[in-house]
Amino acid sequence: MALLTCKDLCPGYDGREILHALNFSVEQGDYVCIVGENGSGKSTLMKTLLGLIPAVSGEIIYDEGLQKGQIGYLPQQTDVQKDFPASVKEIVLSGFCAGLKLRPFYSRSQKQIAQENIEKMGLTKLKKRCYRELSGGQQQRVLLARALCAAQKVLLLDEPVSGLDPAAAENMYELVGKLNKDDGMTIIMITHDLHSAIGQADKVLHIGEKVFFGSRGQYLEMLDAKGFSKSGGAENG
Amino acid sequence: MADAFDKLYTYITQFPFVRYALIVGVLIALCSSLLGVTLVLKRFSFIGDGLSHVAFGAMAIAAVLKLTNSMPLILCITVISAILLLRTGKNAKIKGDATVAVISVSALAIGYLLMNIFSSSTNLSGDVCTTLFGSTSILTLTTAEVWLCIALSAIVLAVFVLFYNKVFCVTFDEDFARATGVKASAYNLILAVVIAVIIVLAMNLVGSLLISALVIFPALSAMRVFKSFKSVTVCSGILSVVCTLLGICISIVYGTPVGSTIVAVDLVAFGIFMVIGNFSGRVKA
Ligand SMILES: Nc1ncnc2c1ncn2[C@@H]1O[C@H](COP(=O)(O)OP(=O)(O)OP(=O)(O)O)[C@@H](O)[C@H]1O
Ligand SMILES: [Mg+2]
User: Fold this and answer.
1) Residues of B in contact with A106 (CB under 8 A)
2) Are the Cβ atoms of A87 and B172 closer than 8 angstroms?
3) Cα radius of gyration (chain A)
4) Which secondary structure element, helix H or strand E, spans residue B218, and what is its range?
5) Ligand 1 center to A44 CA (angstroms)
6) Which end of chain A is flanked by fewer CB atoms within 10 Å, N or C?
7) What is the ipTM of this complex?
8) pLDDT of B19-42, one tens digit each?
9) Whole-prediction pTM
10) Which residue range is the domain that position A170 belongs to?
11) Superfamily name and number for B2-273
């Protein structure tokens, strides 16, 4: 059975639908890219998948084996208050919060994994710093490290490379690709970066006036056929 | 100065009610400041303010009913209001503020009205002033009230320590918490109940008008200087306890009203921390 299946799903706000009747399913171990123009409703769809906002109509069927505590999420924006006192380490650790269940404190192995994720994201030197005093790209990496802590089976990323420098972005894609291939992590990623991201993806969900869902090969063919491959590099990805 | 210490020493050794006041003061200061950090960060401090007025209204009702032990009734009403306020705050974000304002003003007005109509006391404005500013009530605690305070504070502290990590997660980023499967609304509910308990407790110490100060000042002061959640929480707890002890002692020695004195000391501490914060910020930059 698929990890999650959407049947005639209409995400939207306050009963007003933004997207109409989406049908697609994500299998365990898939790497799905969601693409579309600004304002087409990608973030809205992701929030609906996560249960943060109710769907206007339609349903999402989750695999029974998928528990809530196995999902990692990188939001597009986090409106953290300007003077929120929180160190990088505290934030990354908070990714394990759902995994705590009834235990009050983080275990040693959780702290260990948090430390590894901090290193992976190149944040070792910033570990004790206050989140609000970091640059935008550094903050993004902190939230990524937190998402990695939370993700056991599925990782949902909303524009993970926005604000990252090219090296960090490349690094990021490599990391996500590795998680997908080596650990069998299911990846659902929103991106505008057709070149690098779609190069790795198994499936593409294009939303907008026309909705497309299919394998990467089919998507690239469609782009070629229509000749609206704006990002020039997509076909050789 | 030595005189003042002598006086304080005699008071503490001779009068049990002074010791009660110190014990209860320290506990309430600790509870309110620990939670204060979360309240300020979650923008819940306005709920604290509204609730303190509800507690005042509840106290008026208790006075009218001539209850000998008014605490349970006040506690009940305040906890229920806390839960309701949290609901409305979530359902309609924009109207949340207005709802709180309406409820708190109504509670204040009705409370005063009730006291005015039914009270047989000859010194009504004195009574009202006492409930609003808590001028002496902490010095008139009965042993039962002291024990209730100790028990409730212990529960509040235990809840806070046990849920510390979850409270941080939900406070920092509620969407992420919910997305990854943390039961954010359950923790918000726990927070609301705990806030209500603290407010009812703190009413004895500083009166219902000044509770917000007790909740907000230590957290704001600590946030000026410290940068991680843990250090801010610890600092605000210590700061609040120190300020409250100092405030109670000053008020005993010089006969000033307890609540206002504590808040004044908190205010001075806030000023000091602000200066330190500016200074250390400039050194780093
Ligand atoms: N809280 C909200 N209430 C009502 N409408 C909203 C809300 N948030 C977004 N929208 C609307 O929903 C539509 C889709 O927004 P969404 O954030 O999902 O776009 P997106 O595809 O993620 O865009 P981007 O590429 O800029 O991130 C937009 O037209 C936006 O105006
Ligand atoms: Mg978006």
Assistant:
1) 165
2) no
3) 18
4) helix B211-225
5) 6
6) N
7) 0.86
8) 888 888 899 999 999 988 988 888
9) 0.85
10) 72-185
11) ABC transporter involved in vitamin B12 uptake, BtuC (1.10.3470.10)
